[in-house]
Amino acid sequence: MALPEFELESFLPYRLNRAAEFIALRFAAQYKARYQLTRPEWRTLAALGSSGRSMTATEIGVHSSMHKTKVSRAVFGLEQRRWLKREEDGRDRRLEHLALTPAGLSAYGELTELARAYQAELSTTLGADNMKALSKGLRAVERAIVRSAGYARPSKI
Amino acid sequence: MALPEFELESFLPYRLNRAAEFIALRFAAQYKARYQLTRPEWRTLAALGSSGRSMTATEIGVHSSMHKTKVSRAVFGLEQRRWLKREEDGRDRRLEHLALTPAGLSAYGELTELARAYQAELSTTLGADNMKALSKGLRAVERAIVRSAGYARPSKI
DNA sequence: AATAGATAGTTACGATTGTAACTAATATGT
DNA sequence: ACATATTAGTTACAATCGTAACTATCTATT
Question: What is the C-alpha separation between A92 and B90, in angstroms, rounded?
């Protein structure tokens, strides 16, 4: 009569969600307080800044697993701050190439300082080899994401 | 003049968020289609079902890293389906002990079947030892969550 | 060249969310 | 014992989000 065992504590989606929420919140508090940035705005800024090149909105969405309307609004927000500018593609006028302005780049630089500090703090808290293990596991998930983006419709991510 | 390096690809909050979002979405599609459950409702049901005992709303929130208003609404939703009942604490009348009804338990049983299947699929996709690594890393984060809940205000999580 | 289908991105709108304020109860300090 | 602070949980409200529909453009088929 006993139910077959199920340990929520070992169920990956639940654990990942919980961990992500916990880890993200503390960092979000910093850039929110300092720059009034929303999470999608920070993620968009980070995607652009880290890539070191211009990207389309769709690319940003795939890269960060954000819904396209989220990206669209984040881009609009960053544009209003003049941290980002759009440039129309010459050949395909549906595409917009998004790039950080000097002001955007400088904000990105300051934010990466915070990020670096937070990452260092995490490394101390979690321990170096737990970080390594986490990183290895995440890399496997990332490969799965890339693979599935290849087959399936990216807009559904 | 070059900015100090920052690799978004190695920044834990970003990576965790992306992975969690990706992994959770596929599973959410299943319980949404099958039971019209929301994510907070599933997480609440799972926390209760898996613990095998009654819990308070606050305990559920800490356990699942969900905001207390999210928990409050999820509890209300599950109560309306008659999957959960509340019982007042005799000594402290602010507390409500939440427990699954037989119907709730049976739904939980069916959902854990889906969960188990999904976990198995993930294990195949990611590979057993990547799962192990991920699990080890998550366990470290979980310890950090527990520690911080001890000191800091849990309502802020 | 014309039509149908696909894709990039935006937006209207209903649903979901978090903040802050609230109620009700308990705990604490004097 | 009384005032004050704290805690559990709910709710009003404004902000945010995702679905679906939309515009504009491009690609493929005939």
Answer: 69
C4 C1' to A154 CA distance, Å: 23
Tell whether domain B12-150 is in CATH 3.90.190.10. Answer: no
CA of A113 to C1' of D22 (A): 41
Tens digits of pLDDT across chain A (157 residues): 555 578 888 899 989 988 988 888 888 888 988 899 999 999 999 999 999 999 999 999 999 989 999 999 999 999 999 999 999 999 999 999 999 999 999 999 999 999 999 999 999 999 999 999 999 999 999 998 878 765 433 333 2
| CATH number belonging to domain A22-150 | 1.10.10.10
In the numeric block, the tokens 């994401």 are attached to: A145
Buried b (16+ CB within 10 A) or exposed e, B22-61: bbbeebeebbeeebebbbbbbbbbbbbbbbeebbbbebbb
Question: Most A CBs within 10 Å: which of B9, B18, B51, as the mutation test of the A interface?
Answer: B18
Interatomic CA–C1' length for residue A155 and nucleotide D22, angstroms: 16
The Cα–Cα gap between B18 and B25 comes to 11
Cβ–Cβ pairs < 8 A, chains A and B: 189
Shortest alpha-carbon distance between residue B137 and chain A (Å): 4
Q: Which residues contact A3 (CB under 8 A, 6 or more apart)?
A: B105, B109, B112
- Cβ within 7 Å of strand C: which of B 23-62? 38-40
Q: Which residues does residue B98 pair with via DSSP β-bridges, in sequence order?
A: B55, B86
